[in-house]
Design goal:
Elements lengths: L1 H17 L66 E3 L2 E3 L9 E2 L2 E2 L15 E5 L5 E8 L3 E3 L3 E2 L11 E3 L9 E3 L2 E3 L13 E3 L8 E5 L5 E5 L10 E2 L17 E5 L2 E3 L3 E7 L8 E4 L2 E4 L5 E5 L6 E5 L6 E4 L1 E3 L29 E8 L2 E8 L9 E4 L2 E4 L5 E5 L4 E7 L6 E6 L9 E5 L5 E7 L2 E2 L3 E2 L10 H23 L1
Parallel strand pairs: 17-24
Antiparallel strand pairs: 1-2, 3-4, 5-6, 6-7, 6-8, 9-11, 10-12, 13-14, 14-15, 16-18, 18-21, 19-20, 19-22, 22-23, 25-26, 26-29, 27-28, 27-30, 30-31, 32-33, 33-34, 33-35
Length: about 500
Amino acid sequence: MKKIFLLLGLIFLAGLVSAECIDADGDGYGLNQVDCAFYSADCYDANPDINPGAEEICGNGIDEDCSEIDEPCPKCPHGFIYYRCSCGGEIYEPNTTQPDFCCNNVFNGKTLCENCTEPMTEQIPCTTEQGCPGTKICMQGGIWYYTKCHDDPEDNCPCIEEWECGEWSACTNRIQTRTCTEVNGCSTLHTKPSEVISCGECNPGITQQCVTNQGCPGTQVCQSDSSWNACSDIPNDNCPNIQPPKDKEFFVMIQPEVLEEGTEFTITVIEENAVQNARIEYANNVYLTNSSGQAEITAEKEFDLLKVSKTDYVTQTIVLNIIKYECGNGVCEEEYENETSCPADCKPVSTEMKINTSLNENVLTILVTDAKEEPLSNVQVIYVGETKSTNTQGITTFDELPGEKTITAVKEGYQTKIITYLASTNCDEGNTKECTTEEECPGTQICENGEWTECFDLEDDCPGEFTDTTVLLTVVFIMGIMLLAGVKIFT
């Protein structure tokens, strides 16, 4: 029983000991938070400057206030101003960049002042150049010195100006105005914005010389809004030299084109649309076109000139193609003349046609002539299934196709002409075509330099793995099995 009471007594004494405050550095904060001056526990009991009530110093790598982190200092670029401050007799506003001046109201550029004795610990009150309360701090820069008087950023001294401005007025006499009001009640005007600016292009009422859009000299006047009006041409200076409009041109058609004595023909006059009331003078008579731009006239072989005119249009003279049926005029009017009645005009003509070809940049030009090598028009030329007619020079063109082709020329009254044409290339560059390889497999040929390449096999598993030798051995093997089977049957 005595041993039990002894054990309980030791436990009680241990509890009394543990209830005492353990504060090794004497800063009032203990490790066990029991019976100490402050209830919060000390995170480092070996340094009285480190406890939950200490002031944190930013960026020094030490957790002074036991917050488990070292508070980072505000980032401050060199010379960037966070508070309004003064240095060297100058006032610097926030959000501006001034090299080597204040940052967070602490001067980066050091200025020597009266000596001090205790560095960093000695601070004395002072008055700034703006008459605001401040503090001097003892620093070292070769010798101990006091910094310039630092303004207290919390005392609103000097007053930080904040201005609000209205809208700019209309431009009058090249000036715009507005009203700005300081809203913080400061009596200073250090940062007051401008309330007057210049505007416009000119002073109202003045004139100046200019050049019009037609390149002529002119004048313009400055308007009430200080802008120039449009440049006005100077009258009676013959500029611009306006030319009278050129006469328009119409188009005249005669149907039929070939006339003979007493033939009634239709003349049509058009521009974009039909030209009505156009004046037509022919055979000492005057005709006017109707609303369709047409007039009906009878041909007379003594008159082959026809004149067409209208106000604002260019007058045109038309030569009519009238057949006069005169033997010996060098023209064989086949409807009225032949080799017998007028051999001078109607000489025997060969019905043979000639075909000539030429090539230029893949364009095949075909020229068709008669036996005398005179060009033949309206010849139907057939090339690779396409048919075209020759023009008055006996020419038509096709796109050349590779290989050997035929060209056929057909014209009434002439013998049909057929020739063989070999293209300059056998194929078009880069074209492909299907083919069969020597192994009887599908393949492809490509046109290179106008010629087809050899047929090369496609990747289609052809030929397969069985070669001719494999097939032969397979056949021999099967025949051997059949032979053995036959032997067994007969034995």
